[in-house]
Amino acid sequence: MAALAFALSPAVDAAQGDNALAAAMRDADTLLAQVQLGLPDPDVMTLEAIVNRQPLGNVFVRTVGGIAVEEAALLRWRVEFPAAAVVTADGRRFVPIAALPGAVANIEQRTQRLVVTVPAQLFHPSSVVLTTAANIVPAPPPPSAYVNYELFGFGSRDSSYGAALLEAAVAGPYGIAIATGVVNSSEVNGGQSGKATLQDAYWRYDDPAALRTWIAGTSISRVGAWGRSLRFGGVQYGTNFTLQPNLITYPVQAFPGTAVVPSTVDVFVNGSRVASQQVAPGPFNIENVPVVTGAGDVQLVIRDAFGQQQVLTQPFYASRQLLAPGLDDFTISAGAERQNYGIDSFGYGSGFVSAYWRRGLTDSVTVEALATGDNAARAAGATIDFIPGRVGIVTLGGAGSSGDAGGGALAIAGYQYQGPRLNFNVRGTWATPNFRTPGDDTVNPLQRILFAGAGYNFGTAGTVGAAWASQSNRGLPTTSNGTISYSVTVAPRTFANFTLSRSLGGIAQTGGFLSIVYAIDDKTFVSADLTTTRSQGSTDTVGGATLQRTLPIGEGYGYRLRATTDEQYLAGGIYAGPYGRYTLDVASQNGVTAARGTIAGGFGTLGGVVFASRPIVDSFALIRVDGVQDVPVLQNGNFAGRTDRDGNVVITQLYPYSANRITIDDRNVPIDITLATRELLVAPYFRSGVIADFGARKVLNALVEVRLADGKPLPTGTEVTRRDSPVAYPVGEGGEVFIADLALGVPYDAQWAGGRCQFVVTADAKSPDPVPRLGPVACRP
Q1: Which of 167, 194, 288, 709 has its CA 20 to 30 A from that of 764?
Q2: Model confidence pLDDT, tens digit, residues 703-754
């Protein structure tokens, strides 16, 4: 073998430090392996590659004049190499390891592995996407319809009043149509008057994949940085980012790092761990770190399998006021302005049109434009938001108008900074006398608005804040208001807040407010407060105490008790049941007592089920546990209701387009009922329904007595199986075997040491026992 090794040996690679004999034996082994693999070039072999301690599969390696690796492998490994170093052999392109500065390679002949160490800087940077909550894709909503009602009544010794708010909706895969109205009735001194008014009526269609929404009917226009919001009747089409709640719309910085070997990166934002991710060797960029709004720092803690650690820190400034580069946000509205909303059912005025658009140009610059007009005024303007370095966000903008009042102009300037402890905000708006926007028919147009605010977080010592605002309208005195506040946690579950304010304008007024709140539990709290007001030379001070329990998300109750030193007393309760929500409040002030109450609920149909429920104010779900009554249903861990005698319950406060976790407590599920799952994630459309079916199915669990053809019981320990199921059931004493979900008329196989037979159960048990005893059944060979 040694002679054969010397005869067949190629040039010995002196860089490997092998002696001539060892090199010859190694190359002989290599040649023999190549002959077995059928490789035509005796200097090319296939080895398993270990790159920076990471197995990366088999590669072609050439050993003439030093170790060279196939070019395709280096490309897969993301390793940079000079193009001039590429050599061709046997139709393949190879790159010598010596052409990679700082790289070291060695062939382990015994394990047939190529061990390569490559400096981290030679790798192409990789993009690392952190594993985050993905947007759940909502299924097209099934057809549904519902009616909400809220009945309100008020009564005292001198007067009474009643009202009803009604809403009707029809939803399905082609959108949702909603109409709301109110009916008022009043009775004063024996006289009575009443009126029914239509408030809103519209059809809405959402396209979550494209982030677009269509609305036809009553809607509200987009305003941007300076416009005026208008309610109108017509059509609207535009972007709707809420259709994908987990979508990050603001710019996210890339945070770079370098790993020499495969490592784990822990990501900390302002000291809090937010993610952990595996990274390959070489430079990397983490591009979707979920940073908080404002200034802060990100720490990347890089650990390899051997415990070596490096920490990288990088500051950032993020703002949800900006859009990610290349992301557009637009809305187009057209129709007629709604007038006397809530008074007239069909009060419409001037024609109206509006076009709003925003776009992220870079990570630090977002631009906005708005053009809007009606019969009396037309206005258009633009705004830019940008981050100068990491010291806050600047807003600059302007607009011009023309119309019945003539030509006018408006300017906006602002600056905002938000840090881990310090934040402040200043903003100003100035308008010329003739500047108007659609719907602005005031005789006292805006002259200027100024605002300044600041806050500082002292940690456990509390938070202090201050704000000042001033507004001037032409022909009216300037009104200003300044506020200073301080809040602190004074003890576990105990919070204190103090506010001092000063108003100037028509009437000068100074006020102070102090409150202390103690949380008894997550829904109940007790508080004491003191309010003092000084105006026109007199001071009024009132103290009060409150005990309150908030209403849970599903069924349950709440209450509120309050008393003050100026003889005001209030006692109120609220109960949410399976079919409605009911409130009653009784109040007394200066000896005069009044009561008010509401009854609210809904009726609807979904999935062939007609139901009564609490008011459907958000999206809703029909929960099905077929035929099983009194099964508790939880929404995101909170009790939401119990199934009725048909196994159905409707829950009415689901978040649209978000993953709502619906679970059931199966302790109330009988043993003869099997469930397909105990947890479902559902994502309904806006104000629409979704069906969450837990796949409840009645099964026959039975204790079957099985006997052989000679009448003897099956041997103890025999395994019984069904041919379409991997589950095996052991036989106990007397040939009895417990079979879950027994299939009638289906063959079962019984097998034991030295024997095998088959049996079929053909008769069902009529006993009310959930686990009946069946048999004896004959088991035949």
Answers
A1: 709
A2: 999 999 889 999 999 999 998 888 999 999 999 999 988 888 899 999 998 8
Q: Among candidates 506, 503, 569, 494, which has minimal Cα distance to 533?
A: 503
pTM over 0.85: no
Q: Give the length of the chain.
A: 781
**Whole-angstrom distance, CA of residue 448 vs CA of residue 443:** 15
CATH, residue 762:
2.60.40.2070
Q: Using CB atoms within 10 A of its CB, is residue 239 exposed (0-12), middle (13-18) or buried (19+)?
A: buried
Residue 586 in any domain: the answer is no
Q: Phi and psi dihedrals of 753, rounded to 5?
A: -60, 110
Q: For residue 63, what is the domain's CATH number?
A: 3.10.20
Amino acid (one-letter) located at 557: Y
Q: Does position 189 have pLDDT exceeding 80, yes or no?
A: no
Q: Domain boundary at 318, 347, 368, which?
A: 318
Q: What is the count of structural domains for the chain?
A: 3
**pLDDT for 61-81, tens place per residue?**
888 888 999 998 898 888 999
**Mean pLDDT in the chain?**
87
Structural domain contains residue 445: no
CA 237 – CA 333 distance, rounded (Å): 7
Reading the block at residue 774, the tokens are: 């069946």
The answer to whether the CB of 366 falls within 8 A of the CB of 374 is no
- Could you tell me the two tokens for 136? 């759940």
User: What pLDDT digit, counting tens, does each position of 82-129 carry?
Assistant: 988 888 887 889 999 988 998 899 888 888 899 998 888 888 887 777
Q: Report yes or no on 119 lying in a domain.
A: yes
Burial class of residue 153 (count of CB atoms within 10 Å of its CB; 0-12, 13-18, 19+): middle
Last residue of a domain, one of 270, 292, 318: 318
Is residue 659 in a domain? Answer: no
- CATH at 281: 2.60.40.3110
